């Protein structure tokens, strides 16, 4: 009877208790999964926009903080950025405007009337270069180069927008919004910052912690509607010549550009964005604290269950001692029991988390997804959680006094 | 015998000067007082005494379940061929001692989550060189204890091997616990009321097994236990199919058992009865030796007329716990002077003409030979020689007159002595009988 076998027998024998304990573990597992999933979602949404933009090096304002506060720089810097090795420099601007929500169905089925004012993000790029600016393909913003070019043609008109199909439902269904004529239909009007607007098409980007909905337009309309100088841009997407050494190009850019702009690689901007969201904002810290709390709650719960179990079995453990088993054997039994509980709780917790991730992605707009690192780190955390409980509880086993058996 | 017993004459268990305390500081209470005990291999020892007398405490100390505070305990380790001492040893060494011992607790304490066989396997797992097929061994043991495929009538029944404790009756659980305690064939078994929960037949099976593990019994003895239910009555019986199984499972002998019990069936089989009162071993009686002393006393007119219980009391008072086959060792006599005395060849035990006083004694020869000499004023003349079981010295005490002969040891002699006070205590009871004997003595002997 190895410690593992005995631990297994104990758990199987007391099915009801084991079920309760495993449910407790599963609950903690789900909590950890959710926090880590959200944390992963934060990390993913933080870089989502950059992931969909084409660039080898990115020019930003030196006052860049994060995507929502990018800072602006003069358009002229892009001309200055055409140093040796840079084949293209495309401006992109990013801002927030107000959006008049169309009529939509409420969560309970009733209609919510149109007219609600909401904030929506808007991205602007030269309409002729959309295929260069955005990622194309199945995961891209536009399905193909042709689609991007066609969109560019339509976006060339003033007051015309494209709408992200993945925007939150309260902004209105993009396909439906498309059908609303510029003059409106009933009380449904498309208004951006209070101005007449037309949604001529759609693209696909997705939402995250930084924005809930997105519009795309040309730079003139953008400058007009946001009342920003058309000479200011937020980003410069630099494309390098094939075979050019990015570090060498960057050094040349540093020499060529004044200090009001910074040149960063994709990895750097992604890291900076993640760091901002995960470390500097309260969202990341909150989720990390929640993970720790979930583990602590799990430890306490499992400890309570195991300690009660051990108390009930003290005479049996004392008998094991009287038979001549040593302390490590008993420790082994308790720790195996803890690890098995971890496993019993992890499996249903994992399945539940898969379901919740799907709900969060499909309805919450938070791109949570099960990944090996998350699955494995939650498994490890669950093991650590239950082992910690086991180690706390194991002291009770050692109080079993075989002398009391007579 | 597959494992070694202690050298001849050496005990399997030695308890010397053991005292024990519970609590600390102001609440510290002494529960054991300077106890000394030796148990020989194969002895069935009954621990008796009222509750709270310290039997259980001393059992837990012997078993290494408690840390020894004062005194010394040594347990023979057959595998090492040496004693393991329990004095000042670490927890890990205590564990080694526990592995030498089979414990039978009053409460079965089986693992609820394990089947009968698995519970036994828990014990088997600790034995380094166990049987080649431990499963078969455990099944045989359980079958003998009436938990296998055959019941006492020889009819098939559902074996209980794979039952968990919850599905077993109290008696069945106790038998599984007994099988667990005995499966490794320990050389020392410590038991607390092992048969309390058992019916007559199971109880007999257990007792017979414990006895058979101590030493093989003659075939005739065993076959007497195979009897009809009517014949057996409350004493229980064995089935004939149990006998060969008993011999198979009791394949080692020399097992010593220390049993706390009030079960008369076991009491009657005891080789040694240790009685405790208020933390002290009040008497340590080797049953065979007690019989020897009683028989000796019964021969003497001074004690012949008194009740057998009184004879037993006198016997128990003089016994020092030595086994009938063994010569007494000097260390067994320390602190017990005046009960058993040892004389070398040529030494005088009683001298003719010595007057009797408070320290005069009655003597019963345990071992060796003495000669009786009388001078009657002239040269001493040898009257007779006497050996074990014979007594001398009572006439002078009864008649309160000087010794009428000299008794001298011819070889090394061990004599039990009864002092004047004990002797006088029973004189009145025995008076009429004694008077008649004395009349005969005067008429014939003078």
Give an account of the 3D structure.
The complex is a heterodimer of chains A (406) and B (446). Chain A is of the alpha+beta class and 406 residues long. Chain A has 2 domains: 3-46 and 281-405, no CATH class; 63-258, no CATH class. Chain A has 14 helices and 14 strands. Chain A has helices at 3-13, 15-46, 48-51, 76-80, 130-133, 145-155, 174-178, 219-226, 246-256, 266-280, 282-312, 314-323, 327-364, 372-397, and strands spanning 57-61, 73-74, 86-100, 104-105, 111-112, 117-124, 160-164, 191-192, 195-196, 198-203, 214-217, 232-233, 235-240, 261-265. In chain A, the strands form 4 sheets. Chain A has an 8-stranded mixed β-sheet with strand order 10-7-11-6-3-13-1-14, with helices on both faces. Chain A has a two-stranded antiparallel sheet with strand order 2-12. In chain A, strands 4-5 form a two-stranded antiparallel sheet. The longest helix of chain A has 38 residues, at 327-364. In chain A, 44% of the residues are buried. The mean pLDDT of chain A is 89. Chain B is of the alpha+beta class and 446 residues long. Chain B has 17 helices and 18 strands. In chain B, helix 3 (116-124) crosses helix 4, helix 3 packs parallel to helix 5 and helix 11 (287-299) crosses helix 13 (308-318). Chain B starts with 12 loop residues before the first strand and ends with a helix. The model of chain B has no long low-confidence stretch (mean pLDDT 86). Chain A binds chain B through residues 1, 6, 9-10, 12-14, 313, 315-316, 318-327, 401-403, 405-406, and chain B through 56, 59-60, 63, 65-66, 91-92, 95-96, 98-99, 103, 105-107, 109-114, 118, 121-123, 125-126, 164, 180, 192.
Give me some keywords for this one.
heterodimer, A: about 400 residues, alpha+beta, two-stranded antiparallel ribbon, 14 helices, B: about 450 residues, Rossmann fold, Jelly Rolls, 2 domains, four-stranded antiparallel β-sheet, elongated
């Amino acid at each position: 009877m190895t410690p593992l076998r005995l631990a297994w027998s104990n758990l199987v024998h007391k099915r009801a208790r084991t079920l309760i304990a495993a449910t407790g573990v599963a609950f903690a597992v789900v909590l950890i999964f959710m926090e880590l999933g959200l944390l992963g979602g934060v990390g993913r949404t933080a870089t989502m926009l950059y992931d969909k933009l084409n660039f080898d090096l990115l020019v930003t304002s030196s006052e860049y903080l994060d995507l929502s506060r990018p800072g602006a720089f003069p358009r002229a810097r892009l001309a200055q950025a055409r140093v040796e090795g840079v084949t293209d420099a495309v401006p992109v601007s990013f801002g927030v405007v107000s959006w008049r929500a169309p009529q939509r169905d409420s969560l309970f089925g009733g209609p919510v009337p149109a007219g609600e004012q909401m904030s929506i993000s808007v991205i602007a790029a030269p309409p002729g270069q959309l295929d260069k600016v955005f990622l194309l393909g199945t995961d891209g913003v536009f399905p193909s180069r042709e689609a991007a070019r066609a969109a560019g043609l339509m976006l060339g008109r003033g007051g015309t927008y494209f709408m992200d199909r993945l925007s939150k439902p309260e902004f209105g269904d993009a396909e439906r919004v498309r059908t609303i004529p510029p003059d409106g239909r009933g009380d449904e009007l498309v208004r951006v910052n209070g101005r007449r607007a037309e949604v001529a098409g759609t693209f696909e980007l997705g939402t995250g912690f930084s924005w809930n909905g997105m519009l795309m337009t040309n730079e003139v309309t953008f400058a007009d509607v946001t009342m920003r100088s058309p000479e200011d841009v937020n980003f410069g997407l630099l494309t390098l010549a094939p075979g050019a050494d990015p570090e060498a190009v960057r050094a040349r850019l540093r020499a060529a550009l004044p200090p009001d702009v910074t040149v960063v690689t994709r990895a750097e901007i992604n890291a900076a964005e993640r760091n901002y969201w995960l470390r500097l904002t309260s969202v990341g810290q909150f989720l990390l604290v929640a993970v720790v709390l979930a583990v602590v709650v799990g430890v306490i719960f499992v400890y309570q269950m195991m300690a009660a179990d051990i108390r009930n079995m003290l005479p049996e453990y004392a008998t094991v001692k009287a038979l001549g088993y040593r302390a490590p054997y008993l420790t082994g039994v308790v720790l195996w029991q803890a690890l098995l509980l971890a496993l019993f709780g992890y499996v249903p917790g994992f399945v539940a988390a898969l379901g919740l991730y799907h709900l969060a992605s499909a309805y919450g707009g938070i791109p949570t997804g099960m990944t090996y690192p998350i699955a494995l780190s939650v498994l490890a955390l669950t093991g650590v959680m239950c082992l910690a409980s086991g180690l706390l509880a194991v002291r009770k086993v050692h109080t079993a006094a075989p002398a009391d058996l007579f | 015998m597959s494992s070694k017993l202690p050298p001849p004459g050496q005990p399997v268990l030695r308890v010397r000067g053991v005292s024990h305390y519970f609590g600390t500081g102001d609440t510290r209470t002494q529960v054991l007082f300077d106890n000394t005990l030796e148990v020989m291999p194969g002895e069935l020892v009954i621990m008796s005494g009222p509750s709270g007398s310290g039997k259980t405490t001393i059992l837990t100390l012997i078993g290494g379940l408690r840390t020894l505070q004062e005194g010394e305990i040594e347990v023979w380790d057959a595998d090492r061929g040496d004693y393991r001492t329990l004095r000042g040893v670490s927890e890990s060494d205590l564990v080694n001692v526990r592995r030498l011992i089979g414990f039978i607790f009053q409460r079965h304490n089986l693992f609820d989550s394990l089947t009968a066989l698995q519970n036994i396997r828990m014990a088997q797992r600790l034995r380094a060189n166990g049987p080649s097929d431990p499963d078969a061994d455990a099944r045989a043991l359980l079958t003998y204890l009436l938990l296998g495929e055959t019941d006492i009538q020889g009819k098939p029944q559902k074996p209980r091997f794979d039952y968990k404790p919850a599905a077993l009756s109290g008696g069945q659980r106790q038998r599984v616990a007994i099988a667990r305690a005995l499966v490794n064939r320990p050389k020392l078994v410590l038991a607390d009321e092992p048969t309390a929960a058992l019916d007559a037949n199971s109880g007999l099976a257990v007792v017979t097994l414990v006895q058979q593990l101590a030493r093989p019994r003659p075939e005739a003895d065993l076959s007497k236990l195979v009897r009809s239910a009517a014949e057996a009555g409350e004493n229980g019986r064995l089935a004939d199919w149990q006998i060969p199984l008993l011999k198979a499972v009791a394949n080692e002998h020399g097992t010593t058992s220390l049993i706390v019990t009030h079960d008369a069936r076991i009491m009657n089989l005891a080789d040694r009865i240790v009685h405790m009162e208020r933390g002290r071993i009040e008497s340590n009686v080797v049953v065979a030796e007690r019989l020897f002393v009683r028989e000796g006393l019964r021969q003497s007119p001074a004690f012949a007329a008194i009740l057998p219980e009184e004879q037993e009391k006198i016997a128990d008072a003089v016994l020092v716990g030595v086994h009938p086959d063994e010569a007494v060792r000097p260390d067994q006599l320390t602190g017990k002077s005046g009960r058993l005395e040892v004389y070398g060849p040529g030494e005088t035990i009683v001298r003719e003409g010595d007057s009797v006083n408070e320290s005069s004694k009655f003597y019963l020869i345990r071992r060796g030979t003495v000669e009786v000499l009388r001078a009657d004023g002239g040269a001493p003349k040898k009257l007779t020689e006497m050996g074990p079981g014979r007594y001398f010295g009572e006439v002078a005490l009864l008649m309160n007159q000087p010794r009428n002969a000299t008794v001298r040891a011819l070889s090394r002699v061990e004599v039990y002595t009864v002092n004047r006070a004990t002797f006088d205590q029973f004189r009145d009871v025995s008076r009429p009988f004694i008077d008649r004997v004395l009349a005969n003595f005067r008429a014939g002997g003078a």
